[in-house]
Specification:
By secondary structure, the protein is an alpha/beta fold. It folds into five domains: 102 residues, no CATH class; 87 residues, Nucleic acid-binding proteins (OB fold (Dihydrolipoamide Acetyltransferase, E2P), Beta Barrel); 65 residues, no CATH class; 190 residues, Rossmann fold (3-Layer(aba) Sandwich), CATH 3.40.50; 157 residues, Rossmann fold (3-Layer(aba) Sandwich), CATH 3.40.50. It is 38% helix and 18% strand. Helix 7 crosses helix 21, helix 9 runs parallel beside helix 10 and helix 22 crosses helix 23. It binds adenosine-5'-diphosphate and magnesium ion. The site of magnesium ion has 3 residues, from helix 10.
């Protein structure tokens, strides 16, 4: 007898071609077919009287044949007129047919048809229905349960898919199915077997509406299991990592106290909490792997500085990696402000340094004289040798590419503690699922006395008004960013377009110092410009989106974003975060090219209504979906079979609590669960 664990190729009539096709959608064995759930259902459980049939409905009817005609012309059609006992008629129309088919339809015979009700010149019609000639002894179309319609792949037909899934269901009836969640039934949920049966063949009185809304209890049963499997696979990674041991930092806090006393402000309680959590990790012998998230301007940098102090006091070096040179030099400045007074040596390492400079820095890093090393990716090239690297901080900024960067730890003799900072908040549902393997610190409040940025949407045509606003802002000694969001493919073309805007602004702002910065410029030139802007020597900075991340110039109080409809929510929020950092009331003008798409309109609307990065992140997830936000790095969450983390976020907590119990269970059971749900691990399983 066949078993659920058998490969699908064991199904009679399923060949290697179909096997490959099914493999691509994660179906390797019969059990996987059970988890290939219907997209929708057809209702063939009763006959619909013609006078009750509504346009557009898919219905099953049983009628008597009146007459048959062939319609000659360019396209030869077969017309078959049916009627009920009240003489109401239905016309079956076949746009292609054969002679044999025409002969099948015999006057006064009973026929059953299933199809969509359409309307034609002569009344109700059905085109190419599924039909059975009952008088000729063909079996009925009437079903006891609803009929599933499955998602398809390649050129596999619906009928084939139904047949194969049915084979799996037949075997399911007769054999046990590993169900690790029997305890879920205590929460009134069905068993796994029952849930699958219900979803493939719902009873006629089943609540279809809730199935269509993905809120049916049978679906919830599966969703919780899938979310749990997904989290389990990440938590297992985390557990593995935590088995490594590393340097314990003794928390002395001598330097921290000095720094704290010299700060011109008090830490927010969210910052204090994050520092506390980090210190706890650092003083353990398990390597820290923590994600520090907080809204733009919530003050993540200072938290990172405090972490460095712990490393320094324990004789370890810290490395801080920024995504761009501009940001690396800016971090250099802020770190130097905080740490130089404490006598700490900081080094900057970037790609644009000349050989001599570079060698000096490399020497300091190798000798251990440099206690804090700040840089771009250049930090982790082969030539860089750390003396005693104990802490790695990655200012990941706009990308959530958390894990790739973890390979950097190889620079240390012993796994270093790691802190990853994100530029904008990550929706809670994502941190609970896609980032379940990281510990999380959240800065969920802004420093006090921040004045929220006012956001205005304005048609591109109203540039004149914007020019007036710029003049006013500059007359108050504040500064302006003008962001060109250009979609040109190459940075060269982008630079060219930005140049046009730059000339326009030069002409219209003769008394202001307007300077342009873009990605094509030499790094030194960019740095010089940023420094000049930073110290107020430039009034208006025309920029491409290179400025998007992290830049901190508190005196800038106006941000103009041209063609803002082209950017995503998170990016716009990040850009807007460049203003509102000082004591002045700031404005962000989102200029747009009309007409706006509905989606773009929604985005601009959300930005006008809120400054809260957490709300924006959730909206972004809703509008774009997890796949777009996570990119290719976390296909696990984006490609789930039943669950959808946006839609099913309300079940994440429940899944997590099962996962926490599960992780201490039998290894075999854990693996079985993961293999059932996670495609990547399934293919590994198939090859073994
Ligand atoms: P982000 O989280 O966007 O990286 P930063 O770390 O650049 O934010 O901090 C933004 C600004 O807020 C900096 O000028 C910083 O000095 C200031 N700042 C940080 N924490 C506080 C605080 N607790 N009170 C007042 N200002 C603060
Ligand atoms: Mg920052």
């Amino acid at each position: 007898m066949q078993q659920l664990s058998d490969a699908i190729i064991s199904i009679h009539g399923l060949g290697p071609k179909a096997q490959n096709k099914l493999n691509t959608i994660g179906i390797y064995n019969l059990e996987h077919l059970l988890f290939h759930l219907p997209l929708r259902y057809q209702n063939k459980t009763y006959f619909t009287p013609l006078n009750k049939a509504r346009l557009g409905d898919e219905v099953l009817v049983q009628l008597v044949i009146q007459r048959v005609e062939s319609l000659l012309g360019k396209r030869r059609q077969l017309l078959c007129y049916l009627a009920d006992e009240n003489n109401q008629s239905l016309l079956l129309r076949f746009f292609h047919s054969n002679h044999y088919q025409k002969q099948q339809f015999v006057r006064n015979d009973i026929v059953q048809c299933f199809g969509e009700i359409k309307i034609g010149k002569e009344g109700l019609e059905m085109h190419h229905p599924e039909y059975r000639l009952i008088s000729k002894g063909q079996s009925t179309l009437l079903e006891k349960t609803l009929s599933p319609i499955y998602p398809l792949t390649g050129n596999i037909s619906q009928i084939q898919m139904q047949k194969w899934v049915n084979i799996a269901i037949d075997i399911l009836q007769k054999s046990p199915l590993e169900d690790s969640f029997t305890s879920l039934s205590n929460d009134n949920m069905p068993s796994l077997k029952q849930a699958l049966k219900t979803l493939h063949h719902p009873q006629k009185d089943e609540d279809l509406h809730s199935i269509m809304q993905f809120k049916h209890i049978a679906q919830q049963r599966l969703i919780v299991e899938e979310l749990c499997a997904q989290q389990l696979s990440l938590l297992r990674l985390k557990k593995q990592r935590k088995r490594k041991t590393t340097n314990i930092f003794t928390i002395k806090n001598t330097l921290s106290k000095q720094l704290l006393a010299s700060l011109g402000f008090e830490l927010t309680s969210a910052q204090q909490r994050s520092i506390f959590q980090i210190n706890k990790d650092l003083s353990s012998n398990q390597p820290m792997l923590r994600l520090l998230q907080g809204d733009v301007g919530s003050g993540k940098t200072i938290v990172a500085v405090f972490a460095c102090l712990q490393a320094i006091e324990n004789g370890f070096q810290s490395a801080i990696m920024a995504p761009t040179e501009i940001l690396a030099s800016q971090h250099m400045q802020s770190f130097a402000n905080y740490l130089n007074p404490l006598g700490i040596v900081i080094t900057l390492l970037t790609g644009s340094q000349n050989t001599r400079e570079r060698e000096q820095h490399l020497e300091k890093i190798q000798s251990g004289q440099a206690q804090v090393v700040i840089g771009t990716q250049a930090l982790f090239q082969g030539v860089v040798n750390f003396n005693k690297l104990g802490l790695v901080i990655i200012d990941e900024q706009h990308k959530f590419g958390v894990r790739q960067r973890l390979s950097l730890v190889q620079k240390a003799h012993n796994t270093p503690h790691q802190l990853v900072m994100t530029a904008t908040p990550i929706p809670r549902s994502l941190t609970m699922s896609a980032y379940a393997d990281l510990d999380l610190s959240t800065i969920d409040e802004l420093p006090p006395n921040r004045i929220p940025v006012t956001t205005i949407a304005l048609n591109n045509k109203r540039k004149n008004e914007v020019i007036e606003k710029i003049k006013q802002v500059c007359s108050e000694n504040n500064q302006v960013y003008w962001v060109c969001t250009l979609i040109e493919e190459s940075e060269t073309l982008r630079a060219e377009s930005a140049t046009n805007t730059y000339h326009y602004l030069m002409q219209n702002l003769p008394y202001q110092h307007v300077v342009m910065i873009h990605g094509k410029m030499h790094k030194d030139e960019k740095n010089t410009i940023m420094q000049q802007f930073s110290c107020g020597k430039i009034d208006v900075l025309v920029t491409t989106t290179v400025i998007e991340v992290g830049v901190n110039v508190p005196n800038a109080s106006l941000m103009v974003i041209e063609n803002s409809e082209r950017l995503g929510l998170a990016q716009l929020h990040q850009l807007r975060g460049r203003v509102g950092r000082g004591n002045n009331k700031s404005i962000c003008i989102l200029m747009y090219q009309a007409p706006l798409s509905t989606n773009a309109m929604q985005r601009l609307d959300i930005l006008r209504k809120t400054n809260d990065g957490f709300i924006i992140a959730n909206k972004d997830l809703e509008l774009r979906g997890p796949g777009e936000i996570l990119g290719t790095q976390q296909t696990g969450v984006a490609n789930m079979k039943v669950a959808d983390i946006t839609r099913d976020a309300y079940l994440l907590k429940q899944a997590r609590s099962y996962c926490d119990k599960f992780i201490n269970k039998d290894e075999k059971q854990q693996q079985a669960l993961i293999q059932r749900w996670i495609t990547q691990e399934k293919s590994q399983y198939a090859s073994t």
